[in-house]
Amino acid sequence: MALPSTVLDLPSILLPWVASRPDEPALLTPPGESRRVITWSRLLGAIADVRDRLRAAGLQPGDRIALIAPTCPEFMTEFFGAQAAGLVVVAINPLSTTREIDYLLEDSGARMVIAHPARSDAGAASAEAAGVPLHLIEELAEDGPQVRPVDGEVTFDATPRDGADLAVLLYTSGTTGRPKGAMLTVSNLLSTVQIVREMIDVQDGDRWATGLPLFHVFGLVTVTLSALTAGVPVTLFPRWDPRAFLDALREDRISIISGVPTMWMSVLAEASDGSGAEAPALRAVSSGGAAISGQVLRTFEERFGAPVVEGYGLTETSAVGTFNPIVGVRKQGSAGCATPRMEVRIIDLDGREVPAGVDGEICLRGPAIMAGYWNRPEATAEVLDAEGWFRTGDIGRLDEDGYLFIIDRMKDLILHGGYNVYPREVEEVLYEIPGVREAAVIGTPDEKYGQQVTAVIARTPGSDLDAAEVERVTREKLAAYKIPRIVEFVDELPKGPSGKILKRAIVLPGTVGD
Predict the structure, then answer these.
(1) Phi then psi for 396, rounded to 5 degrees?
(2) pTM of the model
């Protein structure tokens, strides 16, 4: 079912499903004794309550509210309720410190903090310091107010919106300077959910599951909003638990799962050898956030019998850009072709488009591209040109068929003795070594070579992998200047809220190597 062209308020994407399947599940918590199943009619009833509460608080259309909550149904009711009231949601990592939240409240001008009780201490302190009210979210009960269809129709009061109206502010990770708020509009989100539904071929009867954070664009927009738009129920995991995730695949007969490579690695570690019974309905695995190694991709597909399809996008592009087709040619190591209604091109340092097969900066254009950075016109001008092209800061190339191959982040490039070393290429080899559970390649300062190629590895339990074996394997498969000369073993690699390995947070206590 396509969205009516006149729909401009986000809660209206739910109405067809409230009308046609009011008592069927919309959102579910993980299987177990404390599981909650929220139906479509109950979901809309809870959204109406949030809308009324926000309006009664005196908030006006266009005001910003800060939302701090894990991946749970309450995040979605607060999000949709704010949209129904015409507000802008500033989604904040629930693990943020008071100092970090202080900055986000000041930068966004948020007029209220809404926090989940399990993650409320820092938010409460920041709200008090900013002089704005704090609302603690109550757990959403299965029984409660509902909005039900009357004669097959659903009536719902939502503040009228324009496509250019701001819907969410999603702050970037701030790897360079302070975080910037990417402005995603109502039109951005509505366009993106249509793109995702088409590229994944979402079908009636599908069931989705994810442990991605909802304050992140991948979990919020390309998964949960897209699923609900299509009438697909979503099982949400507030804490990542690969064993519980496997239970949900079987019990809920999940057909689509979305996550990042570290999630798939942890699922493989928990899965039995014969996992067909653990995922009887699984038909598609969408992976993003970081490149997945070829070895992990092949092992996952063999174990579960479903294609792992990589996509590429950023917060500034509503998490869409390119995607490998579920049905058709999937090229291993590629992030796929441009998604519907999106364009991709590669440019050189002078901004000129380069031909197929030539490396350069990846640029994207289309209806999912952000309106700009909040109150940052200069930063916006640096990445968005007059023709709507967004400069990603990633290095890649297009092949003759239009498939995108991402080389690496421009800022992650290692300069070793005059040679360019792309960490991703080295990491692909490391993941082929038995005993490597997680790996990251970084550049460390070196007086002679400028930077030294350094491998940081978390071993699989019980492995006795050592630096000598790492050097032996990489020497067989890589040019001499790409071989890690420093190998460091750690218990765990640092990760961001979406499960992506954070190279900038790696601290080396010592070195092993020559």
Answers:
(1) -160, 180
(2) 0.83
Closest CA to 457 of 486, 433, 421, 493: 493
The three-state secondary structure class of 176 is coil
228-251: pLDDT as tens digits: 999 999 999 999 999 999 999 999
Q: Alpha helix locations (H) across 272-398?
A: 294-304, 377-383
Q: Both tokens of residue 300?
A: 């996952």
SS3 content of the chain, % helix, strand, coil (to 5): 30, 25, 45
Q: pLDDT tens for residues 110-133?
A: 999 999 998 889 999 999 999 999
Cα 164 from Cα 349, distance rounded (Å): 32
Check: CB of residue 168 under 8 Å from CB of residue 360: no
What separation in angstroms does the CA of 173 have from each of 311, 383, 479?
20, 16, 33
For residues 447 and 500, what is the distance between their CA atoms, to the nearest angstrom? 31
Indicate the burial class of 241 (C-beta count within 10 angstroms; 0-12, 13-18, 19 or more).
Answer: middle
Max CA-CA distance within the chain?
78
Token digits of residue 394: 């990633």
The rounded distance, in Å, linking the Cα atoms of 511 and 514 is: 9
Indicate the Cα dihedral angle 500, 503, 507, 513, nearest 10°.
Answer: 120
C-alpha 340/C-alpha 42 separation (Å) is: 33
- Tell the burial category of 156 from Cβ atoms under 10 Å away from its Cβ (0-12, 13-18, 19+): middle
Question: At CA 10, angle to CA 8 and CA 11, rounded to 5?
Answer: 120
| pLDDT above 70 as % of the chain | 94
Give the distance from CA 366 to its chain's centroid. 19
Q: How far is CA 398 from CA 245, 345, 413, in A?
A: 35, 8, 19
Please state, in angstroms and as integers, the Cα–Cα distance from residue 252 to each residue in 20, 31, 209, 372, following that order: 21, 8, 9, 39
Q: Report the candidate in 151, 133, 155, 136 with the shortest Cα–Cα distance to residue 94.
A: 136
Using CA atoms, how far apart are residues 290 and 309, in angstroms rounded to an integer? Answer: 12
Amino acid found at 133: P
**Do residues 94 and 126 touch, judged by C-beta distance below 8 A?**
no
Q: What pLDDT is attached to residue 1?
A: 45
Confirm if 71 and 212 have CB atoms less than 8 A apart.
yes
